[in-house]
Task: inverse folding
C-alpha cells in the first residue's frame, strides 16, 4: 500500500517535472524566436542603411517608385483629404455654434488638419495602400524567384528593391500629406458653404490667421518618419515572405497592420516631443 | 566521355558538399565536376536536393561544409564584388522563368546587360537584345509583358535574358517542368543549340528523362542526398539498378 502511494507520488512528481521542463523549453523557444526576430530586424535596418549610402544608387528605379508611391496615390488622397475637411467642418459647426464661436471654425479646422488629422489619416491610408502594395509585390517576387534572379544577375536586391522604395515612401508621403492638408481645408470650405455663404478668400484668410510655422514644422517632420516606417515595414515583410503563395497575402496583411500601428506609435512619440519642446 | 573529360578543363568542382535545412540533411556528401563545353544532367527524384545543389553552386544558398570552385575561384568563401564577378560568368535559368513582372521582355533582357556589361552603348544593347531574342525564336515578343507570355515563351525569354551576358556556365533548373511535350522538346533542343553556339558548359537539373536523353553528355543521379551513379547516357540506359530503370523505362 505504502509502495503504491510512494510510486503514485513519484509518478506525479515526474509528470510535474516533465510539464515544467516542457513549459520552460517552450518559453526558451519563444524567447529565442523573439530575440532572433529582433536581430533579423536590426540586421535588415543596418543593411538598408548601409546600402542607402552605397556608390551605385538606382536612380531610375527610385524615380519609378516615386511615381508609383506618390502620383498613383493622389486620387485616393484627394478623396479622403476632401472628405476629411468636409466631415470635420460639418461635425464641428454645431458645437462651435453653441459657444458662439462659429467664426473660429476655419482656424480650428485648419489647425486640426495641419497638426494631426492630415498627417495621421494620410499616413494610415498610405500604410494600407503603399505598405500592402510593397509587401505583396516583394512577397510575390520572392515566391517566383525574381529576387534570386536579380541576385544572380549581379544586382544587389536590397539596393534595387528596398532602398528605392523606402526612400520614395519617405519623400513622397510628406508631399501627399501637404496635398491632403490643402484639400482638407478646401473640403472644409465646401462644408462651411453647405449651411452658409463664405467666400473662398475670406475662409482661407480666416483659416490661416492662427496657423503658425511651429504648427506646420513638427507635423511635416513626423511625416518623414511615417513614410520611412511604411516603406521599411512593407519591404521587410515582403522580402522575408515565405516560399508559398499564401505567404504573399500574409506579407501584405502584416505589412498593413504593423505599418498602421507604427504610424500611431510614431505620432504619439512626436506629439510628446513637440509638447516638450514648444 | 570520361576519358574525353580528362583532357578538358574543369570549370566547376564540387567536393563533399553538405547542406541541411534545420534538422533535414538534404545534401549529405555530394562531389561532382563540370568540364568545359559539356552538358551535365543531374537526375533524381523530387526532393533529392537537385535544385539545392545548383543554388549552393551559384551562392544563393550557403553551404554547411564542402567546397565549390568555379573557374578555380572558391565560391563558398566569396562575397560582395568577388561573388558578383564569379556570377557574371554564370547564367541561371529558373524553374518558373523568374521574369520581372513589372518589366517588358526588352527591359527584362536589358536588366543584367546594363549592370554587367556597363561598357555597351545604347545601340549595342539594342542589338544584343534583338540577337538573343532571335536566337530563342521570339523576336516579336520584345514589347510584351511577362503576363502575356505562355509557359514555354517565358522559359525562352528567361533563357534569352541569361544568354545575353554570354555566360561560360549555364545552370538549368528543371527547364521542361510544367511544359507540354512539344514545348519540352523545343526547350531541350534549344539547350543543345545553346551549348553549340555559345560553347557553354551546363548543368541541367531535371527529372524529365526525354530532356536528359536529348541534352546529356554525362549524367549524375542523386538519391537521398548522395551521388547514386555517374556515367554516360548509354551506361545509364544499360544499367540494371532498379532506381535507374524506374527512370528510363
Result:
Amino acid at each position: 500500500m505504502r509502495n503504491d502511494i510512494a510510486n503514485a507520488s513519484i509518478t506525479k512528481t515526474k509528470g510535474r517535472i516533465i510539464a515544467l521542463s516542457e513549459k520552460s523549453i517552450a518559453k526558451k523557444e519563444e524567447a529565442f524566436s523573439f530575440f532572433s526576430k529582433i536581430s533579423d530586424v536590426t540586421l535588415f535596418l543596418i543593411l538598408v542603411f548601409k546600402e542607402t549610402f552605397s556608390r551605385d544608387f538606382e536612380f531610375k528605379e527610385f524615380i519609378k517608385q516615386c511615381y508609383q508611391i506618390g502620383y498613383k496615390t493622389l486620387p485616393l488622397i484627394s478623396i479622403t483629404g476632401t472628405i476629411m475637411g468636409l466631415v470635420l467642418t460639418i461635425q464641428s459647426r454645431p458645437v462651435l455654434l453653441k459657444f458662439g464661436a462659429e467664426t473660429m471654425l476655419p482656424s480650428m479646422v485648419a489647425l486640426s488638419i495641419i497638426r494631426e488629422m492630415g498627417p495621421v489619416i494620410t499616413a494610415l491610408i498610405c500604410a494600407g495602400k503603399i505598405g500592402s502594395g510593397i509587401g505583396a509585390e516583394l512577397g510575390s517576387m520572392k515566391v517566383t524567384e525574381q529576387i534570386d534572379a536579380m541576385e544572380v544577375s549581379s544586382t544587389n536586391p536590397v539596393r534595387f528593391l528596398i532602398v528605392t522604395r523606402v526612400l520614395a515612401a519617405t519623400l513622397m508621403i510628406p508631399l501627399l500629406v501637404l496635398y491632403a492638408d490643402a484639400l482638407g481645408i478646401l473640403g472644409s470650405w465646401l462644408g462651411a458653404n453647405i449651411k452658409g455663404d463664405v467666400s473662398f478668400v475670406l475662409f482661407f484668410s480666416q483659416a490661416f490667421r492662427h496657423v503658425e510655422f511651429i504648427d506646420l514644422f513638427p507635423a511635416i517632420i513626423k511625416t518623414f518618419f511615417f513614410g520611412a516606417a511604411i516603406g521599411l515595414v512593407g519591404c521587410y515583410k515582403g522580402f522575408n515572405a515565405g516560399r508559398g503563395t499564401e505567404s504573399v497575402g500574409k506579407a501584405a496583411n502584416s505589412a498593413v497592420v504593423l505599418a498602421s500601428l507604427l504610424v500611431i506609435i510614431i505620432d504619439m512619440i512626436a506629439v510628446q516631443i513637440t509638447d516638450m519642446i514648444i | 566521355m570520361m576519358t574525353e573529360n580528362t583532357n578538358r578543363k574543369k570549370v566547376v568542382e564540387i567536393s563533399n558538399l553538405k547542406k541541411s535545412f534545420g534538422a533535414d540533411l538534404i545534401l549529405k556528401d555530394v562531389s561532382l565536376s563540370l568540364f568545359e563545353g559539356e552538358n551535365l544532367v543531374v537526375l533524381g527524384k523530387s526532393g533529392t536536393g537537385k535544385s539545392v545543389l545548383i543554388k549552393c553552386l551559384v551562392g544563393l544558398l550557403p553551404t554547411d561544409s564542402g567546397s565549390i570552385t568555379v573557374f578555380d575561384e572558391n565560391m563558398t568563401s566569396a562575397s560582395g564584388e568577388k561573388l558578383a564577378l564569379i556570377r557574371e560568368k554564370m547564367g541561371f535559368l529558373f524553374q518558373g522563368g523568374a521574369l520581372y513582372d513589372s518589366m517588358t521582355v526588352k527591359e527584362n533582357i536589358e536588366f543584367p546587360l546594363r549592370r554587367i556589361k556597363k561598357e555597351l552603348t545604347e545601340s549595342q544593347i539594342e542589338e544584343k537584345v534583338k540577337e538573343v531574342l532571335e536566337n530563342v525564336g521570339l523576336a516579336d515578343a520584345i514589347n510584351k509583358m511577362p503576363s502575356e507570355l505562355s509557359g514555354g515563351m517565358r522559359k525562352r525569354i528567361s533563357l534569352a535574358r541569361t544568354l545575353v551576358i554570354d555566360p561560360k556556365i549555364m545552370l538549368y533548373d528543371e527547364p521542361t517542368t510544367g511544359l507540354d511535350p512539344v514545348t519540352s522538346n523545343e526547350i531541350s533542343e534549344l539547350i543543345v543549340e545553346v551549348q553549340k553556339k555559345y560553347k557553354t558548359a551546363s548543368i541541367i537539373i531535371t527529372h524529365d528523362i526525354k530532356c536528359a536523353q536529348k541534352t546529356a553528355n554525362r549524367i549524375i543521379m542523386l538519391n537521398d542526398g548522395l551521388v547514386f551513379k555517374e556515367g554516360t547516357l548509354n551506361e545509364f540506359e544499360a544499367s540494371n539498378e532498379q532506381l535507374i530503370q524506374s527512370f528510363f523505362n
